[in-house]
Amino acid sequence: MQFINSADFAAQLDEQDNLKSFRQQFLFPQHQHKDVIYFCGNSLGLQPKQTRDYVLQELNDWKNFGVEGHFMAKNPWYPYHEFLRDNMALIAGAMPSETVVMNSLTANIHFMLVSFYKPTSSRFKIICEGSAFPSDQYALQTQVKFHGFNPDETIIELHPRSGEYTIRHEDILSTITKHKDELALIFLGNPNYYTGQVFDMAGITQAGHAADALVGFDLAHGIGNLELHLHDWNVDFAVWCSYKYLNAGPGGVAGAFVHQKHCNNTELIRFAGWWGNDPQTRFTMPHDFIPVKSADAWQLSNAPVLPMAALRASLEIFAEAGVQNLIKKRKLMNDFLRFIIGDIISKTNSEKNIIMITPENESERAAQVSMLCKHNGKKIHGYLTEQGIIADWREPEVLRIAPVPLYNSFNDIYQFGKCLHEALLLNK
Ligand SMILES: *Cc1c(COP(=O)(O)O)cnc(C)c1O
Fold this sequence. Notes:
Blueprint: H1 7-16, E1 26-27, E2 30-31, E3 34-35, E4 37-38, E5 47-48, H2 51-65, H3 69-72, H4 82-92, E6 99-101, H5 105-116, E7 125-129, H6 134-146, H7 151-154, E8 155-158, H8 169-178, E9 183-189, H9 201-210, E10 214-218, E11 237-240, E12 255-258, H10 260-263, H11 279-282, H12 305-321, H13 323-347, E13 354-356, E14 369-373, H14 377-386, E15 389-390, E16 392-394, E17 398-401, H15 410-426
């Protein structure tokens, strides 16, 4: 499509957008009595209006039923996690039995690593991104130490080539080949939280398996954003949080995927809890743990119903909008955003100051555009904030913008461009 940087053109795109009514289902923070323009859905998604009712339902049932709510509540708490499973599986491209909602993200990283990182003296290495999210780095380092290995000799970090900003797929493949005899695990965040780069999960999984390694992904920035086929890609496991693109609220309950082939393996080592036991025998309080043959076997505790109610409210909006529709709009928004930023860079001769480091190649990007700002990045971010545009500043020099299809409009993107233009004229 031939884009134009104008309010009229953005209005035309909004007019043609058949998901536009979903914006009305969300609550926007206010700036000078107007809705802010919100581009931080990659950090904390906005609150759906129906979330309050979903949470209130459980508070009321708790008031009315006390402990009986486990079975008597409108949505009984005993199987509450099951109410989220189908919609979550749809978004993850998984079978329902491969998907579970539980814990928090970093906790799930650890629990998955217990099962899927089992180093031996000959096969112990882990490949990950060099600039992984800190929590992921700490989880990997401490797991490695837990097994008595030295992180410096065990963790192989992938880095961009000198002068480049993102990691080349061919370099990922050659790193796998280079370490193939000692490789135990590949674990990558997808997309990378900082650059927004999307990795080829199917290709990496295939290459990892060819090297006899297991492959897992942290989809904190991928769930609700990427088109996922975790089952078909044969990914071993994946984890994610629900408060970014999934709009389930601060610290919301996280999720995990375990491929069917592992779900059926009752011999797998795991850190177990009673909620991972077969529900048929759970309340007979058996002495020995009998894992249910699904991703539920990794659950430890009974369902945290209040945060799950918030997630449930939001997953129903995803199901209503349709994952494919959302991805289609996300692509168009991202194309338009890149066009607008490119236009402003060229109008202000900012080529040396502002660099879009998220790859241009369509298969390597999703909602987010990361802009490297060489000078005055913080001032640009400050100016946007003063104008009611919520963007995200990441030290040392990146501005992250993520229009999300459920509640952003094309006009939001146009307005962002206008303010970026003003900010660049003020802060050359
Ligand atoms: C957001 C994010 C986290 C946050 O972890 P929590 O356990 O939810 O606090 C971890 N890893 C990545 C890659 C993230 O983007």
